[in-house]
C-alpha cells in the first residue's frame, strides 16, 4: 500500500493476484523446514497454554477442597466456653474470672 497509495482492490489484484493466489504462491515458495518450525512453535505454545490452564484448574480445585475441609471441621467443632466475662454499664469488663480459671 505504501508503494501504491492510490491503488484500489482491483488494481492490487491485477498487480499481485487474488489473496488466495498470493497465499498459494507463498506456501509453494516457502522453505519447508521454516514452515514446519512455525507449525511446531504453534503446537508447543498451544500445549503450554493447555498445561497452564490444567495446572490452574488443579490448584483451584485443591484450594476449594482445603476450604471445604476447613469448613467441615469448623462446623463439627464444639465450642467450649473457658470462663465468663462480666460487662458493666460503664463499658469496662472484669476479666479476672478468665485469668483465674486458666
The domain tally reads: 2
Contiguous helical run count: 4
User: How is the main sheet built?
Assistant: 2 strands, antiparallel
Mean pLDDT: 82
Give the amount of beta strand, in percent: under 5%
Kindly report the spatial arrangement of strands forming the biggest sheet: 1-2
* Secondary-structure content class: mainly alpha
Helix percent reads 55-70%
Principal-axis shape equals elongated
Instruction: Compute the CA-based radius of gyration.
Output: 36 Å
Q: How many strands in all?
A: 2
How would you spell out the order of helices and strands?
Answer: HHHEEH
Distance between the termini: 86 Å
Low-confidence stretches: 97-102
Describe the secondary-structure layout.
Layout: H1 9-16, H2 19-29, H3 32-75, E1 86-87, E2 93-94, H4 96-101
Antiparallel strand pairs: 1-2
Kindly describe this structure.
- With 102 residues, this protein is mainly alpha-helical.
- It folds into 2 domains: 1-30, no CATH class; 32-101, no CATH class.
- Helix content is 68%, strand content 4%.
- It has a two-stranded antiparallel sheet with strand order 1-2.
- Strand 1 and strand 2 form a beta hairpin.
- The longest helix is centred in the middle third of the chain and has 44 residues, at 32-75.
- The protein is elongated, with a radius of gyration of 36 Å.
Amino acid at each position: 500500500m505504501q508503494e501504491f497509495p492510490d491503488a484500489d482492490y482491483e488494481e492490487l489484484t491485477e498487480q499481485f493476484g487474488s489473496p488466495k493466489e498470493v497465499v498459494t504462491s507463498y506456501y509453494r515458495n516457502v522453505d519447508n523446514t521454516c514452515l514446519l518450525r512455525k507449525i511446531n512453535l504453534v503446537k508447543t505454545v498451544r500445549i503450554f497454554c493447555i498445561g497452564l490452564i490444567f495446572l490452574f484448574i488443579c490448584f483451584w480445585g485443591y484450594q476449594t477442597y482445603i476450604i471445604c475441609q476447613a469448613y467441615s471441621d469448623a462446623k463439627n467443632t464444639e465450642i467450649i466456653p473457658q470462663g465468663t466475662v462480666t460487662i458493666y454499664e460503664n463499658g469496662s469488663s472484669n476479666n479476672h474470672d478468665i485469668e483465674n480459671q486458666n
